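step 4 of 6: structure.
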Amino acid sequence: MSSFFDRVYEVVCRVPPGRVTTYGDVSRVLTGTARSARSVGWALHGLPPDRVDEVPWWRVINSKGRVSTSCQEHSASEQQARLMDEGVEFGLDDRVDLDRFGWDGE
DNA sequence: CTTCTGACTGGGA
DNA sequence: GTCCCAGCCAGAA
């Protein structure tokens, strides 16, 4: 309980639809610094199948406003499509405007 | 215990 | 604007 992974999932669950957050932001909420952003990404990478339907991993992107998934099962195209379906606008460069859709933690 | 990897970030070219 | 390099954290072998 209260493992780093579980916390990541919890924070991601708090992200409302139509909004996106960055790994560094989540890391900051958990550890207070954006240094563990890598662990956050790894946590989502090891996201259990039973949490996939519960945790909106697709709402988590990098600070560049782009999708960083290396997971072929969860390709960037799919993540992009999911965000678009929620109302998130993607630029012609497949980039998201964090200034508008960036979730600052409510 | 040590070692490595990874869905990141920031700064420099 | 984009691309490349080095640094940090957490977990698994």
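step 5 of 6: annotate
 - Chain A has a mean pLDDT of 93.
 - Residues 3-5, 27, 31, 33, 35-40, 42-43, 46, 93 of chain A lie near DNA strand C (CB under 10 Å from a C1').
step 6 of 6: archive
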